[in-house]
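Let's sit down with a protein and look at its sequence and fold side by side. Please make up or recall a protein chain and show it to me in full. Label the sequence line and the structure token line clearly, so we can match residues to local backbone shapes. Go ahead whenever you are ready, and we will take it from there.
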Amino acid sequence: TSLVIWGVYSLLTLAGIAAFVLTGQSPFDAVCHTFAAVGTGGFGTRPDSFAGYSPGSQWACVVLMFMAGTSFVLLLAVLRGRGRDLLRDVEWRTYAGILGGAVALTLLVRLGDEGLPGDWETFVRDSAFSVVSVGSTTGFATADFDRWPAALHVLFLGLMFCGACTGSTSGSHKVARIVLYAK
């Protein structure tokens, strides 16, 4: 089991390195950021975290952080052609729902506070990046969300408490426990 999980981790790492290099990062930055994203550690090579990288790198990081927060056993099932296992898993559906709902709520609160943005793509990307980074306990940043409304600070605190899926590299409480509490 350990070797299989290492295989999934290695494949995710290679995919992350390739995605970051293809989106303009140097090989050194790509390796460092992939290890930090897959390990949900969030240590960057620049003082501005991910803010100085291309939108493509930032979106690739959103996907990588989200996947790193998914159970590696579920990722293995997907690799083996059993994608339905992922969709049937209540913890993963809850994880995806929490993050999706948090992104939507973040967008709504920011719209109410800041008004219509001039650049929708950046507005959505910064919101999604921040939510997935906090929810997966990775800790990368593209925007200073400390300047966002206080309601989002409370939301982000809740996301930090939840964490991601059991069997992932994410820290914190884990969504499985939240599901058990709700039941």
